[in-house]
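ok new one. same drill as before - structure tokens go in, u give me an amino acid for every spot. 554 of them this time. try not to just spam alanines like last time pls lmao
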């Protein structure tokens, strides 16, 4: 690009008047990315050289202001561009006689932002100059030419983006585009995706999926991690500590992202999210992305392309369970007194019946009040939960009695497996603490003892590592003291005897309401209740195609 003035000097006496010289000239400097700033230095130098051109056009050196706050920022929007916002503000205050840029695309790549600047310049009698000439936005011909330049600048950006996006999609179709890996994965120097080499990281990732298999809800996984003081691992993405393992408090969002991410099932995915302008937050141009649940709409899906923590069937089962946990589905057991909470539908209108409690939560009722609460109409129906729960309990016990012994033995194995998982986790955490103590000690012993400025700092680091290790050891002992005792052969014998008398086990105080609700959800998908005077009938789905009729007090 030719940086020497062409028709600028010719336009000196024609468009630039003394009233313009009385105000300041602003030289606007911008590069789109940090990489351009670092490597395309000639373009930056040419833009800074525009100050000499402003001097030749009649402005004194002290009247020239260089705005370079937007170096390394895209011109597609005014968000996060303090330099452009400052420029518009100065023009609006009437402080600017002329705005100079190497070309229109340096000022704005959006027609909306460009025409806003033109309106301001025309209103406050501010000229615009570039490598081709000087323009007065208040005149029709110059305004038309500037408008065309702005349109071409925006179209050029669209073409560049389209070309890069098509190249990105082509690489994604081959499964070679790696934009970001979820926690538990690393990218090798050979550009291959691998499981995190840290055994503790792998163990915790697998533990999250194992706990979800048992508890079947994100909140259940979160409670388990919090109760056992387990943090979620990840790798630092940037900065001087890039690649190091970091630990963060577990939260619902992080756990949900893990359970929904198909990479953990060994799938390569691209185009799983879409940008929704309605959800975009002010000042955050990359916000507003929405995950698409329908896998048919994903742009690229290659199964068995990555190392996996779970298989694809488990992933699909997890998605189905999380979908059922939403409000319009039965969800997971909540532990209330009502056995069928979340499973009951109204036989009159077909909507889900809500569960209400009175007498301090001891008495429950199933009610359909959607019409009343939404439109002020009448209540469909309401029935005490006690007779319905009693009848359903009897039928469920009748169905599960033959398999009770096998279930009891499986429960015993699950208890031992969970105990071993907790033990393995503490073992790895203690090993990591011992390593950090040994590392701090070696650093302290390697320093010159006379260099007290460094030795004191390393000594404090060593003491801090020792304190963390002692705290972790104390926590481990406290956890061990809270663990239930191991099942002896006598305990297992008692469990087998109890399994032969399922009704007694069902009514035992050690069996919680949540346990009963979990069993019912395995047996039933839905219970439809319809009240007829003093009697009610309730068909249910999944366990058997039966219709029961039972006297019920309303």
């Amino acid at each position: 690009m030719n940086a020497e003035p062409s028709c600028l000097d010719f336009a000196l006496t024609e468009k630039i008047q003394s009233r313009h010289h009385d105000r300041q000239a602003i030289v606007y400097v911008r590069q789109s990315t940090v990489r351009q700033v670092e490597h395309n230095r000639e373009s930056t130098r040419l833009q800074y050289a525009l100050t000499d051109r402003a001097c030749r056009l009649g402005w004194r050196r002290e009247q020239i202001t260089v705005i370079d706050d937007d170096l390394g920022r895209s011109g597609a929007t005014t968000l996060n561009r303090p330099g452009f916002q400052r420029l518009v503000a100065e023009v609006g205050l009437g402080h600017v006689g002329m705005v100079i840029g190497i070309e229109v695309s340096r000022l704005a790549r959006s027609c909306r932002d460009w025409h806003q600047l033109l309106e301001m310049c025309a209103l406050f009698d501010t000229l615009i100059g570039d490598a081709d000439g000087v323009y007065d936005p208040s005149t029709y011909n110059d305004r038309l030419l500037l408008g065309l330049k702005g349109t071409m600048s925006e179209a050029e950006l669209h073409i560049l983006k389209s070309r890069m996006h098509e190249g990105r999609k082509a690489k994604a179709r081959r499964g070679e585009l790696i934009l970001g890996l979820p926690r538990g994965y690393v990218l090798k120097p050979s550009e291959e995706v691998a499981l995190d080499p840290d055994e503790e990281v792998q163990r915790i990732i697998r533990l999250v999926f194992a706990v979800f298999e048992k508890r079947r809800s994100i909140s259940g996984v979160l409670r388990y991690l919090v109760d056992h003081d387990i943090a979620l691992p990840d790798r630092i993405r940037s900065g001087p500590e890039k690649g190091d393992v970091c630990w963060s408090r577990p939260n619902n969002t992080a756990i949900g992202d893990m359970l929904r991410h198909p990479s953990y099932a060994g799938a390569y995915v691209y185009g799983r999210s879409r940008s929704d302008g309605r959800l975009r937050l002010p000042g955050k141009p990359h916000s507003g992305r929405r995950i698409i649940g329908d896998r048919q709409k994903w742009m690229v899906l290659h199964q068995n392309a990555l190392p996996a923590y779970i298989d694809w069937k488990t992933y699909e089962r997890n998605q189905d369970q999380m979908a059922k946990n939403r409000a319009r589905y039965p969800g997971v057991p909540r532990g209330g007194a009502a056995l069928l909470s979340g499973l009951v539908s109204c036989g009159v209108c077909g909507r889900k019946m809500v569960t209400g409690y009175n007498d301090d939560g001891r008495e429950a009722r199933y009610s359909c009040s959607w019409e009343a609460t939404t439109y002020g109409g009448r209540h469909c129906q309401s029935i005490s939960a006690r007779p319905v729960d009693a009848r359903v309990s009897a039928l469920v016990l009748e169905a599960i009695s033959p398999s009770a012994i096998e279930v009891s033995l499986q429960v015993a194995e699950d208890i031992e497996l969970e105990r071993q998982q907790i033990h393995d986790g503490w073992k790895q955490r203690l090993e990591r603490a011992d390593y950090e103590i040994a590392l701090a000690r070696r650093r302290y012993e390697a320093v010159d003892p006379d260099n007290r400025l460094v030795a004191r700092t390393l000594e404090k680091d060593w003491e801090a590592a020792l304190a963390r290790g002692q705290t972790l050891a104390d926590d481990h002992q406290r956890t061990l003291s809270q663990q239930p005792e191991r099942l002896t052969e006598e305990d297992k014998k008692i469990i087998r005897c109890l399994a032969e008398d399922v009704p007694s086990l069902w009514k035992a105080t050690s069996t919680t309401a949540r346990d009963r609700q979990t069993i019912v959800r395995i047996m039933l998908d839905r219970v439809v209740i319809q009240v007829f005077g003093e009697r009610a009938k309730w068909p249910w789905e999944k366990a058997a195609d039966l219709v029961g009729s039972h006297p019920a007090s309303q």
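Residues 1-11, 540-554 have pLDDT under 50 and may be disordered. and btw The longest strand covers residues 526-532.
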